[in-house]
């Protein structure tokens, strides 16, 4: 049996956590992701940039009551990549 390759973009604890959250709720504010993942602002910012570069999430910056707000939203490609990652992990467990 051959092991399926794990997506290196998703094979990071923080990026996987962000994607897990976004798969279930479609979009989330940066501050909410920071709170749920216990990440620092700097680390989370770097990791969501990597997810954006891969085309897995969209980042929308806007203002809400004069405060900057960053929204992260999963893309169809991101949803597919996450599902494939989960299937690949399951193949490791079902030997």
Automatic annotation (TrEMBL):
<protein>
    <submittedName>
        <fullName>Transcriptional regulator</fullName>
    </submittedName>
</protein>
<dbReference type="InterPro" id="IPR036390">
    <property type="entry name" value="WH_DNA-bd_sf"/>
</dbReference>
<dbReference type="InterPro" id="IPR036388">
    <property type="entry name" value="WH-like_DNA-bd_sf"/>
</dbReference>
<feature type="domain" description="Winged helix DNA-binding">
    <location>
        <begin position="14"/>
        <end position="93"/>
    </location>
</feature>
<dbReference type="Pfam" id="PF13601">
    <property type="entry name" value="HTH_34"/>
</dbReference>
<dbReference type="InterPro" id="IPR027395">
    <property type="entry name" value="WH_DNA-bd_dom"/>
</dbReference>
């Amino acid at each position: 049996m051959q092991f399926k390759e794990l997506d290196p973009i998703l094979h990071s604890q923080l990026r996987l956590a962000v994607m897990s959250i976004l798969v279930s709720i479609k979009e989330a504010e940066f501050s909410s992701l920071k709170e749920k993942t216990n990440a620092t602002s700097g680390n989370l910012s770097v990791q969501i940039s990597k997810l954006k570069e891969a085309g897995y999430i969209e980042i929308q910056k806007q203002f809400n009551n004069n405060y900057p707000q960053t929204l992260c939203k999963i893309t169809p490609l991101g949803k597919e990549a996450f599902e494939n990652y989960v299937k690949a992990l399951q193949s490791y467990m079902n030997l």
